[in-house]
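Example S7 (structure tokens).
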């Protein structure tokens, strides 16, 4: 468990920001991997508090169950399973039940570009059950990576730990990709929806117009809406509003920013309009949401 605490070199400034936990500097900078067995609540407060990680996080559930909350949704990760958590997602550990977990984090600069693209397209995901055979393969690869991470005297240590951790990332990504249809089989609507969601993730604070997203994709607004609705069951506007309000909830829960400040950060000069939108999407006012979650 002592090793696991290396995850958290805390960079938390009280008040106006969501806590982000970064990795220690030095050999193998920006990469951490470790294995631990736990039962009951976490041993230290950092993982119990909602936070973001300063990198792409992965959990391999080898035994037992880990209970987590990710972006206001509770997850029970039951072995054998794995889960990937994007750096933008806020999460906390609630408890362990006779659990053995292997966890690793890798920062953006250490990821191979092709893997980074895959991870951005995958997020967010749910916990993924795996076969015992797959668990064995990933666990063996993780054990080797852990051993390599301890060989800090090796001349090519940074390259060794980087490549071995990228192999683990590829193993996890391949499991999630196996659930998806091959890219060659994507319909036109699915391709356009994926492109829209990628644009939305990068521009939701500044671009709220379906017409603007359609223009970026060189298609008409009705056609974009038709594609997105066919693929997801919901309109373009719905997805825009849901993404904005998710970020609003994160900021309301994890920062001391005022409603006006949060509205401004999310691209709304009129905080009254923002509050009405929040009620429309969430069924509760921003203030009530904040108070409810601080009870």
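Recovered sequence:
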């Amino acid at each position: 468990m002592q090793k696991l605490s290396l995850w958290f070199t805390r960079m938390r400034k009280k008040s106006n920001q969501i806590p982000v936990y970064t990795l220690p500097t030095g050999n193998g900078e920006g990469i951490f991997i470790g294995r631990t067995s736990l039962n009951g609540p976490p041993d230290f407060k950092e993982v119990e508090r909602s936070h973001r990680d300063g990198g792409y996080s992965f959990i391999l559930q080898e035994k037992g169950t880990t209970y987590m909350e990710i972006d206001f949704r509770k997850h029970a990760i039951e072995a054998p399973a794995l889960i990937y958590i994007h750096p933008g997602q806020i999460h906390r550990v609630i408890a362990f039940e006779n659990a053995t977990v292997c966890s690793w984090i890798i920062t953006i600069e250490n990821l191979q570009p092709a893997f980074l693209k895959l991870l951005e397209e995958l997020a967010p995901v749910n916990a993924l059950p795996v076969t015992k055979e797959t668990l064995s393969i990933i666990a063996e690869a993780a054990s080797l990576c852990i051993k390599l991470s301890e060989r800090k005297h090796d001349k090519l240590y940074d390259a060794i730990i980087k490549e071995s951790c990228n192999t683990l990332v590829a193993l996890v990504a391949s499991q999630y990709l196996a659930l998806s249809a091959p890219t060659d089989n994507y319909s036109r609507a699915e391709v356009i929806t994926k492109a829209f969601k990628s644009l939305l993730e990068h521009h939701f604070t500044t671009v709220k117009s379906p017409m603007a997203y359609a223009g970026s994709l060189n298609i008409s607004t009705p056609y974009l809406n038709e594609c997105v609705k066919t693929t997801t069951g919901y309109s373009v506007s719905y997805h825009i509003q849901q993404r904005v309000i998710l970020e609003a909830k994160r900021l309301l829960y994890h920062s001391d920013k005022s409603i006006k400040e949060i509205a401004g950060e999310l691209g709304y000069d009129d905080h009254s309009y923002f509050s009405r939108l929040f009620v429309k999407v969430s069924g509760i006012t921003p203030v009530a949401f904040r108070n409810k979650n601080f009870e």
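Notes on this example. Residues 4-177 form a domain with the Jelly Rolls fold (CATH 2.60.120.280).
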